[in-house]
Recover the amino acids of this structure.
């Protein structure tokens, strides 16, 4: 009982944050659209707040916990709830096999699980959309080829896919290749959206513009060291091209957004997929231009930026595996929805107006199928969390010291019958988060059916 | 109909070819996996140079395409090779083999088949009943309760419910009846006698065939995760049918409610769940691996896991093909069944 009170009081930042969200959201619920409507649906609301709890848990993990999540202490080894460490700090849920505080690892676990599952699902969605829209819209060969690929991937049981990606292809060229292919989807999406927006301006210029970025990236691969300068030159040319188009275009907001999004996403992509541009290569140029002091400043910045967008290996494997496993399902969903929607009158109207095909797909069809996509996204994040847990359970993927819930369950399951306190907390944590997400999805679905 | 089935089967063969070629290439072009294969033959203490030379002498003797062709032709006639981990032939009946005449895959698929049989036998009726009861009156208290229950089970993957059951039913110290002392005395006289009859081993024994004890926890674990999804689909389908015109007509005609549900609603409401149930097979393969590894049930899933962690090449290929065939076959059956069950589609 005392432990429960201590646990609840230790979580004060989370309670404050949840209360804050509620206090702000409740009076303004009529003005916040879809989000505000959730406040009329008890199941969706409970789900939302369970999800928020874990999101805040991930944010405040450092404040909530008394222990370092990877620090081991002999005094806590296999000790049950309420064990006291050598420094006299109480471990609320006890310690695990290696003497690490379970209560703290639970919240640091949210910090591992939530970002990976959300980003992997997001990337999988972009991949599914980028492939699904043309497959549904064009049909015929495009559809046949893409559908065959998707069905081939779906023919693998998920677990086999994981084993192949994480265990067999761990150090091979498969992971970087997959990252290159899957990661290109967001860039392609923005490029294609831009392509659609400026579609009426004439084909040659657009084709050129659309090809520029991939060409730059391929060049990056071949030339390597010279890309840093070349890449930025291409990006600048790309931006200039669009700004010149923006001047003659009505939809400025979107256009500017594209001008910013394309280089930023392109930069992140080349950085994540190829670790390029390598900032160290610009150093001599900076030194030449700004002298010794400028060069030192540059080195400082380089040190800071160096780890930015360069993924860790173990997390990357897991990320790619999860993303690769869920993309085909999303592809099928988007394809089906596109098939349904493309016969509608507003699509026919857009076709008659002479709009660009890509414009029709991204600005006419996609916004109109967002309802089912949002519900599916919520469900799929939940499923991704389960998949992450599966990977952790088999000890595939993340490092054994990682505090994610699946790994915790895997470490503790050997002694689960004698020391259940090592496995039940992460099990319940995972269960509650997935339950929350499912309830949120259910609430969203009910609301979308009402409209 | 026949042309459709034929085309699908052809496509399935192409898929299998592409997938096996992919796996074959992946394994055979990666230095680390090749070394891991060599370790199976030469032992874990062998230096890397010896491993590499073994690989060069025994694996990389011919071009990749030729080796794939050889493997494929062997596979097609039932020669699936030897397993490096299990130290015996993988597939088929071999009269000259020692103690185990049947191959590893045959034995393991038999054990998993029994597991799957019991899972489906329990899961499908329970799920359909829950779904029907919830869907008959949409929005009622019963519907709310059953729907929440099914959401909860879909949020409880096997590795979580399995752990919870293990603690609650297989642990002497934390057994659920230790904490509810009234129930055992209520069921019978002696507390320990009852505890023993509700105490299940967390590790499957499987010495003398497959017993109730070996099956209980794995089946229970898999049923819990699977029930929710089918129940929700059934509920959605049932609710849709109950709000349709012809059911309203039947009710207004004055038929008893039971007759309306049984004769008019159920037939159409069960078409959608059929597809869902068939598509549960691929999902089950993942569940089977988790459950079998967790409870040391010596079935197909456990073999797959052991083979892949030890880089048992022939076994990995065999397991991949078996699972891909299972998935493709269930997809085919579900598509054909959907057409057969739905009269509107049958006419075309």
């Amino acid at each position: 009982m005392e432990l429960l009170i201590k646990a609840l009081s230790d979580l004060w930042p989370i309670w404050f944050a949840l209360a804050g969200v509620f206090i702000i959201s409740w009076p303004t619920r009529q003005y916040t659209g879809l989000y505000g409507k959730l406040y009329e649906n008890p199941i969706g609301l409970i789900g939302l707040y369970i999800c928020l709890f874990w999101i805040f848990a991930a944010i405040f993990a450092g404040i909530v916990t008394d222990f370092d999540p990877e620090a081991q202490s002999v005094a806590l080894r296999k000790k049950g709830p309420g064990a006291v460490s050598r420094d006299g700090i109480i471990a609320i849920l006890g310690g695990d096999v290696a003497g690490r505080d379970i209560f703290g690892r639970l919240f640091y676990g949210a910090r591992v699980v939530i970002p990976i599952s959300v980003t992997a699902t997001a990337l999988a969605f972009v991949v599914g959309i980028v492939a699904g829209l043309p497959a549904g819209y064009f049909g015929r060969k495009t559809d046949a080829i893409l559908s065959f690929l998707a069905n081939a991937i779906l023919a693998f049981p998920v677990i086999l896919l994981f084993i192949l990606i994480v265990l067999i292809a761990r150090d091979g060229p498969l992971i970087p290749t997959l990252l290159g292919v899957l990661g290109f989807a967001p860039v392609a999406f923005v490029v294609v959206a831009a392509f659609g927006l400026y579609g009426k301006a004439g084909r040659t210029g657009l084709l050129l513009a659309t090809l520029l970025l991939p060409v730059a990236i391929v060049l990056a691969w071949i030339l390597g060291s010279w890309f840093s300068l070349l890449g930025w030159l291409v990006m600048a040319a790309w931006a200039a091209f669009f700004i010149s188009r923006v001047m003659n275009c009505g939809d400025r907001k979107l256009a500017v957004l594209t001008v910013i999004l394309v280089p930023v996403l392109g930069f992140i992509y080349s950085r994540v997929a190829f670790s390029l541009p390598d900032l160290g290569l610009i150093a001599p140029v900076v030194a030449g231009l700004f002298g010794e002091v400028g060069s030192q400043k540059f080195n400082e910045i380089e040190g800071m930026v160096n780890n930015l967008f360069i993924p860790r290996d173990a997390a990357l494997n897991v990320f790619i595996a999860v993303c690769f496993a869920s993309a085909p399902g999303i592809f099928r969903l988007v394809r089906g929805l596109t098939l349904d929607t493309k016969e509608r009158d507003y699509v026919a109207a857009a076709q008659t107006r002479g709009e660009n095909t890509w414009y029709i797909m991204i600005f006419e069809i996609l916004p109109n199928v967002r309802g089912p996509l949002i519900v599916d996204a919520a469900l799929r994040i939940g499923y991704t969390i389960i998949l992450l847990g599966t990977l952790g359970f088999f000890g595939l993927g993340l490092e054994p010291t990682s505090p994610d819930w699946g790994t915790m369950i895997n470490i503790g399951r050997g002694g689960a019958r004698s020391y259940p306190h090592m496995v039940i907390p992460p099990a319940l944590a995972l269960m509650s988060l997935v339950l929350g997400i499912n309830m949120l999805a259910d609430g969203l679905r009910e609301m979308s059916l009402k409209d | 109909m026949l042309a459709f089935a034929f085309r699908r089967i052809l496509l399935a063969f192409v898929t299998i070819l592409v997938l096996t070629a992919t796996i074959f290439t992946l394994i055979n072009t990666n230095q680390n996996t090749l070394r891991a294969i060599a370790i199976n033959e030469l032992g874990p203490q062998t230096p890397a140079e010896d491993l590499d030379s073994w690989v060069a002498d025994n694996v990389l003797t011919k071009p990749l395409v030729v080796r794939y062709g050889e493997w494929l032709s062997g596979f097609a006639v039932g020669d699936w090779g030897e397993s490096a981990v299990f130290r015996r032939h993988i597939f088929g009946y071999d009269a000259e083999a020692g103690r185990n005449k049947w191959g590893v895959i045959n034995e393991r698929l038999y054990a998993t088949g029994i597991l799957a049989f019991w899972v489906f036998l329990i899961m499908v009726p329970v799920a359909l009943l829950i779904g029907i009861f919830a869907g008959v009156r949409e929005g009622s208290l019963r519907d709310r309760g059953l729907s929440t229950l099914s959401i909860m089970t879909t949020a409880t993957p096997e590795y979580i419910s399995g752990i919870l059951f293990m603690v609650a039913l297989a642990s002497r110290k934390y057994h659920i009846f230790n904490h509810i002392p009234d129930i055992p005395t209520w069921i019978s006289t002696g507390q320990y006698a009852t505890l023993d009859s509700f105490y299940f081993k967390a590790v499957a024994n499987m010495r003398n065939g497959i017993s109730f004890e070996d099956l209980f926890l794995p089946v229970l674990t898999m049923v819990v995760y699977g029930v929710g999804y089918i129940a929700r689909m059934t509920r959605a389908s049932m609710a849709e049918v109950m709000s349709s015109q012809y059911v309203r007509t039947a009710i207004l005609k004055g038929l008893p409610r039971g007759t309306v549900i049984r004769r008019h609603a159920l037939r159409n409401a069960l078409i959608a769940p059929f597809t869902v149930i068939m598509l549960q097979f691929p999902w089950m393969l993942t569940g089977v691996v988790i459950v079998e590894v967790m409870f040391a049930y010596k079935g197909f899933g456990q073999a797959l896991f052991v083979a892949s962690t030890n880089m048992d090449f022939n076994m990995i290929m065999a397991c991949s093909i078996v699972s891909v065939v299972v998935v493709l076959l269930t997809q085919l059956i579900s598509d054909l069944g959907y057409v057969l069950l739905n009269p509107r589609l049958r006419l075309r």
